[in-house]
Amino acid sequence: MAAHKPVEWVQAVVNRFDEQLPIKAGQQNTHTKVSTEHNKECLINISKYKFSLVISGLTNILKNVNNMRIFGETAEKNLYLSQLIILDTLEKCLAGQPKDTMRLDETMLVKQLLPEICHFIHTYREGNQHAAELRNSASGVLFSLSCNNFNAVFSRISTRLQELTVCSEDNADVHDIELLQYISVDCSKLKRLLQETVFKFKALKKVAQLAVINSLEKAFWNWVENYPDEFTKLYQTPQTDMADCAEKLFDLVDGFAESTKRKAAVWPLQIILLVLCPEIIQDIAKDVVEETKMNKKLFLDNLRKALAGHSGSRQLTESAAIACVKLCKASTYINWEDNSVIFLLVQSMVVDLKNLLFNPSKPFSRGNQNADVDLMIDCLVSCFRINPHNNQHFKICLAQNSPSTFHYVLVNSLHRIITNSALDWWPRIDAVYCHSMELRSMFSETLHKAIQGCGAHPAIRMTPSLTFKEKMTSLKFKEKPTDLETRSYKFLLLSLVKLIHADPKLLLCNPRKQGPETQGSTAELITGLVQLVPQSSMPDIAQEAMEALLVLHQLDSIDLWNPDAPIETFWEISSQMLFYICKKLTSHQMLSSTEILKWLREILICRNKFLLKNKQSDRSSCHFLFLYDVSGGGTSQISLDHEEMIRCAPGATLRKGKGNSSMESTAGCSGTPICRQAQTKLEVALYMFLWSPDIEAVLVAMSCFRHLCEEADIRCGVDEVSVHNFLPNYNTFMEFASVSNMMSTGRAALQKRVMALLRRIEHPTAGNTEAWEDTHAKWEQATKLILNYPKTKMEDGQVAESLHKTIVKRRMSHVSGGGSIDLSDTDSLQEWINMTGFLCALGGVCLQHRSSAGLATYSPPMGPVSERKGSMISMVSTEGNTETPVSKFIDRLLTLMVCNHEKVGLQIRTNIKDLVGLELSPALYPMLFNKLKNTISKFFDSQGQVLLTETNTQFVEQTIAIMKNLLDNHTEGSSEHLGQASIETMMLNLVRYVRVLGNLVHAIQIKTKLCQLVEVMMERRDDLSFCQEMKFRNKMVEYLTDWVMGTSNQATDEDVKCLTRDLDQASMEAVVSLLAGLPLQPEEGDGVELMEAKSQLFLKYFTLFMNLLNDCSEVEDESAQTGGRKRGMSRRLASLRHCTVLAMSNLLNANVDSGLMHSIGLGYHKDLQTRATFMEVLTKILQQGTEFDTLAETVLADRFERLVELVTMMGDQGELPIAMALANVVPCSQWDELARVLVTLFDSRHLLYQLLWNMFSKEVELADSMQTLFRGNSLASKIMTFCFKVYGATYLQKLLEPLLRTVITSSEWQHVSFEVDPTRLEPTESLEENQRSLLQMTEKFFHAIINSSSEFPPQLRSVCHCLYQATCHSLLNKATVKEKKENKKSVVSQRFPQNSIGAVGSAMFLRFINPAIVSPYEAGILDKKPPPRIERGLKLMSKILQSIANHVLFTKEEHMRPFNDFVKSNFDAARRFFLDIASDCPASDTVNHSLSFISDGNVLALHRLLWNNQEKIGQYLSSNRKSSLFKGP
What we know:
By secondary structure, the chain is mostly helical. About 65% of the residues lie in helices and about 0% in strands. The strands form two sheets. Strands 1-2 form a two-stranded antiparallel sheet.
């Protein structure tokens, strides 16, 4: 289009520009601003080729906008912004105007555009900010217009001059004359203006003459300031024609100045005209002056006289001051080498001038303060440029007791010197650097006074050593400034901040000062600026302060903060600033928070540039860098190397604390590194902006995460550590940054993306935890305000407290003790919704932060549930009751699920349902499930009756919707959390509640949704945890089949019929999923009765399904007859019939043994449709692969076999999940039976060694020392005892019976006593003889035992070998890495001196040999009990043998100490025996498995143990899986 129809295309662009102006498109945001800028650039580029079309279009737009009628403050502001945009575009288009513009275009410009521009210049209203800015913008357009179209503008001015020669005094319109002040003037154009003025000056009316005099002076300065080189050349090569025109006009004006008033009016122009005549200045400087030039010399004399105060007229003195300042200013544009005479002229006046203008005791004033200030600034700047080293007037202005006007003039003069340095010979600002200290003092004092006048908070205190405390002492008891003084302080403060922005070095310079002093002054300066950023009462100053701080963060500026230690100073000061700003942002104490966040992003960019530049030197300051301790969930400084501590830079000391280390800088970091606090607070601020209703704020916050990541990249490069040590959530932060480029996304889509990313936050940090908790506190407050609306608003009468402050739409109000909220403001409610989503999505990390420490190291101990300490099961069961903030938040959400607020109740309920169901962090699922279960359980009374209320029903309906969304939405990471809490009880209670609702429309809809939930639940079956799955599913089938109504529904309403059919369909789909692989389990009965009950239950369901199929067939026939309006119903019935067939197939498939007998007859039914249905069902089950083997007579034996296989199932690492689950949940009272069953089953499968390994390893792991090993009545001890009893009975009989019979029956032992306790000796007995007898018997038994290793049973060798290996393995696992490296064997010996083989001997004698020795009759070795004296001897002998096995001597029993020598001498012999029986494990194939036959009693006992404890087993397996997720490597 642009090529073929250029005019139409340009017009389209102009129209688009017009449509997007604020006056038509409304208030601007980031997107519209960007679009408007694009349109501007497009038009500016087009104007280079289609100038007339663009200018004409813009002129018409401006004309239309100017003629618009507006009402209201917002419309007025939009009009003003639109006019500014148009004028700015016009100025840029005119500046690039092509040189070949036709004459016709010039005429068009003058006739159409010029009047519109003049409108803004002529209608200026004093004091109106908008009017002033519009006039400045319009004057820029006029300047650009006159650059290439001077003739057109000059013609207008000339015409107006001609008209003013003939009009009356009263009708004189001098507006067009004033255009001289704004047009572009070069040397030739100025001559034309002077010539025209000379030609017409005398004929002009007085008012016109004064207008020309004023305007020509401004035109001169336009020329000098825009074309300084031309003015300079004027003194190098004088131009006669210019001088002639100037001299003639001088004479004309001199003749006009008849009175004092006129003289005062013309002197400023006369000095300018004189400056245009270099040769005349030379001449009048001589002693002899020509007559024609005497009036010029007289003028200068009068000027000096008035300046010195000798004229007798205040008017002339003031005019002389103005003229002299003009002379000084003009002289600065002349190189003194070209004309030294003018400088002599200046020197003759400048002293008096400065005395007049800068006299603190008598300040100069003409009644117009702005004009006076401009004059003084011109004077100060000119004097500096003439002689920068004569700075006496600087000292006067700097003095603390000087008027504030002097301070203002000085600061603005310095700003002009810095920003306007067009000529080479003008001195630079360096000459003023020596006054940095005074300027900083001025800034500090002005800041204090301005803030004091605004009634703001006191100055912030970043560090104790860096505040203004000393400097402010003099102001402490002064009265609060008046409003007028406060205004003047604000103006001065704004100028000071602009000065810092212009040249930060001016206030950073610290000549001849030490590092700490330099750092202190820098911190003071930056502290002051930072304090200004949140000042809502001074928005201009706040904006300028941000710009100044940005400049101070440039590379060159940061180096000046403290040249002696730039890195350390940077970290400390910049971090303090960051911390303060972020703290203000998070507390919402800033109005333009989005703009401040944008600025903060620029600060972060500057910080990263500095870090990158100083990457290598940054090593020396690593005490300011910190790492996250990811395992603990918070942040802590940790060593960068395991073998050495963090190196500290000079000026800081490392202080070690308990568990982590912290820094204490001598500069005053208050015990913790401010950089760590700053980064944490920055994270908090960025997180909290993510829930802002302002899209721009969210996108800016997300983009800031990129710079956090860049900083981490730089720092990890310095310290050679992983970037995740600095930013644990680095990857997610980078994703946030990439999403920030989505400029065109909508609010809802953006928040959805934000919440998805928040759920991906893996590691808890101080930042995200604090952000969650702060947001939760604000959310709670907002929730209360919303729920109390409009009551709060009616009662309080306070200003509405907005929830989040954005730049355009929000305004802040500090409210003490509460506030109110206006729900008509959609942003307020949207913000609450965003906060809710934020808390849902990020809550999982905060929960992990609180529970990870407990979860990370947990390993379930052996023993029953009731005896376990801190087990996972107890954690899961009590987790929902823990009053953590996350728990309170979930509780609050549950109450809001049934919010009935009349205005926003529906919105709240809908959003809670969607956010909890779709955006909740998967880590919160278990807590949510438990809380929902507990809440719904309260809907039943103590007898189990439903408490039916409207609120309860609403809660149930919301729960169903949430659970369906949650299970339907495959959120990342949901699978691993869904199974951590069982939902069986909740689902059953939901069904029990819903089934009593009746058959009203709403009830049917709720039932349908619940059926859909059940279907989704079964789809996620593998991810969910069921304690009694079969029982649960059977119960659900029972309940849901009751809802299948078929033709029993007699409703006449077609809509109700449709809903009923929908319920039938949903019920059957749910039943299909429930019946898949489900063996029916009747409520009561066992044995034959159980099978009969199962058969009856099958028949019940099968009959129901057959009836439903018949209903479907009948209704289908009716539908076919009635025609089209029933076709929709027919489609529903076809789908229902298909589901019913599937349900029958699943039912028969899983219950062939009890169901085939009831269903087989249907194959021979007289009804053809019934037979066809049976064949369809039979086909389905054959396709599903149903096994009919279950009909065999051996079905019970086969099932028992599978049960044994299940219990003996072994994992990849040798673990036994089901067996260990039984060991953990079976009560103590049943351990003997469990030990018998497990040993029998595992030995029959040749897996006894694996059982023993698992049990012994757990026992050794829990043992505190060797002395406690197998001493208690643990399950492992009972299993060991059972093994010894079963496998060692023959061995003991063969070993001990001969020895015992010898002792009992042999004549030499008949009258021997073995009592060695002196307190129990008979009077006739000898202690020594008894000791010898006991020793002799013990030695005989001991040698018999240790020499029997060849006869030791192979099964018991397996037991001992397993115990030996388990002990070694466990002890090695408990040893440290360092110990393992040094010597594996020494590890065990160091931990237990007797070494691990001692465990074998100790256990064998304790559990096997000694019990048989002490009680041979009970052990079945002897036919009758031995005599008491023999029993006593056997008991004492067992003590000696046990001591040898334990490798310990007697210490407590005095009467046993004499045997210590014997005990000690046999340690090695015993050790060799133990090693012999434990070092080798016979192959499984070579062992005679005496228990290979499993009795029915054992299998039935196993079944009973599994059945009675199935819920606890499920909980244990679920918790064990959860614990493994958190275990470290």
